[in-house]
Inverse folding.
């Protein structure tokens, strides 16, 4: 897939007391993309030019990542602060709603945001992240999922995870992508270097890990969930080593209008490993929604 790097532009926006960096391409309705760990806006490089044909696509560096501000206080990574960031982006760009797309941590925040501000979300697309209620259920009652999530418990330790990631020129970043990916050609050396450079920016590693140290517990010990009325597409790479496919089962109990598309032989990095398939499923979902 050809990526037209020169066709998108970089910008910043002041929201919720901080400044966030984002890239944007296209004009029209807003499609807002939220990345996961240990990524940044670049994880959407295959989707930005595709959907810029019909949308104003905005792929943001979440707070703490890459070129966005990196507050030091752990409380800055409370889920409510992350939600306020997203509200600020949508309204700050002059929109009343968006198509919200999130992967991994970005997907978790997208779930919360859709519940908190359903009027601001026309359609929700989440990739390889379960509904918060299903994730909490898995961590409370599924020993296999607890084992898969053991890395997140390790991240609770102060300083040690940062040192591990920095060791040997951020080798752990490369390992995270290359060992999990089914298609080992999905990430070029330049891609890996981009992720390493983003993580190496001053304050970034601790900020990135603070999502686990603060917000993860809100996912596990949280509220009762109502039925979400926002039409939702879930895309799931079936070979996710961190999140079991069984976490998707029963999601329809929490979402009125839900579609799930599974992609076999694909890892957690679904939109980067199978971009054509992901783009196809997104387009089918958005087109069907428009027709209805």
């Amino acid at each position: 897939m050809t990526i037209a790097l020169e066709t998108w532009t970089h910008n910043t926006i002041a929201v919720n007391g901080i400044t966030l960096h984002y890239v944007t391409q296209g004009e029209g309705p807003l499609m807002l993309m939220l990345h996961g760990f240990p990524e940044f806006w670049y994880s959407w490089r295959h989707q930005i030019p595709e959907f810029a044909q019909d949308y104003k696509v905005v792929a943001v560096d979440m707070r703490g990542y890459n070129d966005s501000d990196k507050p030091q206080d752990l409380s800055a990574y409370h889920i409510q602060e992350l939600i306020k960031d997203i509200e600020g982006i949508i309204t700050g760009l002059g929109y009343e709603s968006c198509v919200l797309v999130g992967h991994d941590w970005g997907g978790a925040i997208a779930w919360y945001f859709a519940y908190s501000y359903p009027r601001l979300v026309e359609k929700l697309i989440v990739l390889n992240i379960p509904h918060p209620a299903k994730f909490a259920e898995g961590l409370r009652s599924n020993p296999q999922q607890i084992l898969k999530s053991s890395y997140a418990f390790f991240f609770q330790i102060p300083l040690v995870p940062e040192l591990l990631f920095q060791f040997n020129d951020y080798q752990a970043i490369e390992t995270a992508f290359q060992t999990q990916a089914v298609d080992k050609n999905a990430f070029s050396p330049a891609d890996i270097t981009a992720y390493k450079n983003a993580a190496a920016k001053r304050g970034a590693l601790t900020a990135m890990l603070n999502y686990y140290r603060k917000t993860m517990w809100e996912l596990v010990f949280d509220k009762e969930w109502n039925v979400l009325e926002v039409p939702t597409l879930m895309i799931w790479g079936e070979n996710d080593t961190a999140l079991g496919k069984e976490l998707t089962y029963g999601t329809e109990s929490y979402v009125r209008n839900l579609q799930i598309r599974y992609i076999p032989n694909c890892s957690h990095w679904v939109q980067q490993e199978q971009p054509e398939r992901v783009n196809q499923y997104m387009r089918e979902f958005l087109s069907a929604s428009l027709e209805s």
About this structure: The first helix runs from residue 48 to 51. The two ends are 31 Å apart (CA to CA).
